[in-house]
């Protein structure tokens, strides 16, 4: 995906007198292993900025989490949006705790930021990293290389609906999916632009219009209309259930995918597992207009079962950090970071979810060492 521009348009990016770019990054570690991997991500980003010496990163941490919720009765202070709008990007860990219902934590923190900040494009790249193995037989690096574009502002997670007659035998609950022309068209255009930027120029539109005859038929209709503006992009359409089998049986036939909030949420988790582990999968929550900061997060969740044990895989956060740098306009730094990560996984330094025995800190140390080596080589070529 090559949609990055050198600066955001929210007025927060500063340029120092030497001409080098300086970026303000809000850190929201959240819960569980989110706290651990964001710390590792910060360390790697600082190492990268120091070694390359071409840009600066200014971090500020925020304690918004389930612990904050239990203390204050809410996940975010009243001025949270005003605070984060001062930053160029947000690096987010995870949210969720065993003693807080998931719908409260999700809507209280992550969605409470994504929706009002108009981060309507959720982008999840997936590929098999060097040195890792897919559970799919004979699937090698290069055979599975996808970008899943998820509509991130409405659809099944629009938040419309309610309950009545609670506690009665006739209690009712409704969950209303919302599909607006504005929302569907803008994510379709983003997905087509993403597909156009990739070598294969191929987009699969995922739907369920055989059963959901209103919202999904509308989704298909808008997709067909937008496709007319992208004659250079090859388009096909798949029902979401058939898409799951295609991902398993013919991964090489897929390139860029666009799907609704719910469908892409599920498909991207499957994609991560097929690539080797959900512990390597990144997410970008983007406001393509750049009027607001975008938020970047690993998709693995808070994983309280391994919290504090040094077992968390930091690779998803490193990949997420690379996507953040790319979005901010630092494509060379992003490429160097991913090269360092794959050199490390290829050398056998991997956490247990990837079949290795390394601890979180060991992976981070190895990536930092590799960054030093690659940056020195890059500087010698200049």
Short description:
The chain has helices at residues 33-52, 66-72, 80-84, 102-114, 181-197, 215-227, 240-249, 261-275, 315-328, 331-346, 360-381; strands at 14-15, 21-30, 55-61, 89-94, 121-127, 145-151, 155-164, 172-178, 202-207, 234-239, 256-259, 282-286, 294-298. It has 382 residues and is of the alpha/beta class. α10 (331-346) crosses α11.
Q: Which labels suit this protein?
A:
11 helices; Isopropylmalate Dehydrogenase; eleven-stranded mixed beta sheet; alpha/beta; single chain; two-stranded antiparallel ribbon; 382 residues; 2 domains; globular
**Total helical segments:** 11
CATH class category name of the largest domain? Alpha Beta
Topology as H/E string?
Answer: EEHEHHEHEEEEHEHEHEHEEHHH
Distance between the first and last residues' Cα? 26 Å
Q: Give the biggest beta sheet.
A: 11 strands, mixed
Total domain modules: 2
From the coordinates shown, what is the CATH architecture of the largest domain?
Answer: 3-Layer(aba) Sandwich
Strand content: 15-25%
The helix/strand class is: alpha/beta
Name the overall outline.
globular
**What is the average of the pLDDT values?**
93
Radius of gyration: 21 Å
Q: What is the helix content?
A: 25-40%
CATH topology of the largest domain: Isopropylmalate Dehydrogenase
- Give the strand tally: 13
Poorly predicted ranges: 4-9, 11-17
Spell out the CATH superfamily of the largest domain: Isopropylmalate Dehydrogenase
Please tell me about this protein's structure.
The protein folds into 2 domains: 21-119 and 283-381, Isopropylmalate Dehydrogenase (3-Layer(aba) Sandwich); 134-159 and 175-275, Isopropylmalate Dehydrogenase, CATH 3.40.718. Helix 5 (181-197) packs across helix 6. The protein has helices spanning 33-52, 66-72, 80-84, 102-114, 181-197, 215-227, 240-249, 261-275, 315-328, 331-346, 360-381, and strands at residues 14-15, 21-30, 55-61, 89-94, 121-127, 145-151, 155-164, 172-178, 202-207, 234-239, 256-259, 282-286, 294-298. It is built from 11 helices and 13 strands. By secondary structure, the protein is an alpha/beta fold. The strands form 2 sheets. Strands 1, 2, 3, 4, 5, 6, 9, 10, 11, 12 and 13 form an 11-stranded mixed β-sheet that branches. Mean pLDDT is 93; it is low at 4-9 and 11-17. The two termini are 26 Å apart. Its cofactor is Mg(2+); Mn(2+). It catalyses: (R)-malate + NAD(+) = pyruvate + CO2 + NADH.
């Amino acid at each position: 995906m090559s949609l990055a521009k050198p600066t955001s348009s929210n007025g927060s990016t500063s340029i120092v007198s030497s001409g080098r770019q300086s970026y303000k990054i809000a850190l929201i570690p959240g819960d569980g292993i989110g706290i651990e991997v964001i710390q590792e991500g910060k360390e790697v980003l600082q190492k990268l900025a120091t070694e390359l010496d071409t840009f600066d990163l200014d971090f500020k941490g925020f304690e918004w989490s389930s612990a904050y919720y239990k203390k204050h009765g809410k996940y975010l202070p009243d001025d949270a949006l005003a605070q984060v709008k001062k930053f160029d990007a947000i690096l987010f860990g995870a949210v969720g705790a065993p003693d807080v219902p998931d719908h409260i934590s999700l809507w209280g923190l992550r969605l409470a930021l994504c929706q009002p900040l108009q981060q309507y494009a959720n982008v999840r790249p997936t590929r098999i990293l060097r040195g890792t193995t897919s559970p799919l037989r004979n699937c090698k690096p290069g055979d599975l290389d996808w970008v899943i574009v998820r509509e991130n502002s409405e659809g099944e997670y629009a938040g419309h609906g309610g309950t009545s007659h609670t506690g009665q035998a006739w209690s009712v609950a409704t969950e209303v999916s919302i599909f607006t022309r504005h929302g569907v068209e803008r994510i379709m255009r983003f997905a087509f632009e993403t597909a156009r930027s990739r070598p294969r120029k191929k987009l699969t539109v995922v739907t369920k219009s055989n059963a959901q005859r209103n919202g999904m038929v509308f989704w298909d209709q808008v997709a067909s209309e937008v496709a007319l503006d992208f004659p250079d992009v090859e388009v096909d359409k798949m029902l979401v259930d058939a898409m799951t089998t295609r991902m398993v049986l013919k991964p090489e036939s897929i390139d860029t995918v666009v799907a609704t909030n719910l469908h892409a949420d599920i498909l991207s988790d499957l994609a991560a597992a097929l690539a080797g582990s959900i512990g390597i999968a990144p997410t970008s929550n983007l406001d393509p207009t750049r009027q607001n900061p975008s938020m970047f997060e690993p998709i693995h969740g808070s994983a309280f079962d391994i919290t504090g044990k040094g077992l968390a895989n930091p690779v998803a956060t490193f990949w997420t950090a690379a996507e953040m740098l790319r979005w901010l306009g630092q494509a060379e730094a992003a490429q160097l970071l991913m090269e360092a990560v794959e050199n490390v996984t290829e050398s056998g330094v991997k956490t247990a979810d990837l079949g290795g025995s390394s601890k979180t800190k060991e992976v981070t140390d190895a990536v930092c060492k590799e960054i030093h080596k690659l940056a020195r080589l890059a500087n010698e070529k200049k």
